[in-house]
Amino acid sequence: MPRLAETPQDLLSQSEALALSGLEFMQKILDGTNPGPPIGATMGYMLHDISDGRAVFRGTPEFNVTNPMGTVHGGWYGTLLDSAMACAVMTKVPRGSVYTTLEYKINILRSIPLGMQVDCIGTTDHVGRSTGVAHGEIRGVEDGKLYATGSTTCIVMKIAT
């Protein structure tokens, strides 16, 4: 069962993180060995499934992520999609390397009702020595409807040998 970091000391050191492949790193978050990022608590989502080239986050938007009109803020969609797409890229990053998002784009297709559980699925299209490209979608768990899509480009950097 995943758990989230509550203090900076809960996170892995750079050397501990670099000793793992990206897939190993993500698997250890999913099984609770290593903590996940605290943004999940802030935004109401958590890593749900991980495999080679694929990351699934499950979340439920509540009132605390609404805009002034009372609907889910676009930043919630973007943050959720960025997490899933970038973590899908992470699963392809080799031991001794790190990654970060360079850019991402989202398309919101319909409003997610407050309190509705969604899955955000990130899937890699390409991960090489220096770049990773992925796409993602947010779908309702119960209704299967597509609520948003996204795409990302990440930079992959070799830090250690």
UniProtKB/TrEMBL annotation:
Domain Thioesterase: 69-144
InterPro entries membership: ACOT13 (IPR039298), HotDog_dom_sf (IPR029069), PAAI_dom (IPR003736), Thioestr_dom (IPR006683)
Keywords: Hydrolase
Record Pfam families: 4HBT
CDD domains registered for this protein in UniProt: PaaI_thioesterase (cd03443)
Keyword Mitochondrion carried by entry: no
Highest taxon of source: Bacteria
Family from the record: Belongs to the thioesterase PaaI family.
Name of the molecule in the record: Uncharacterized domain 1-containing protein
Organism name: Sulfitobacter litoralis
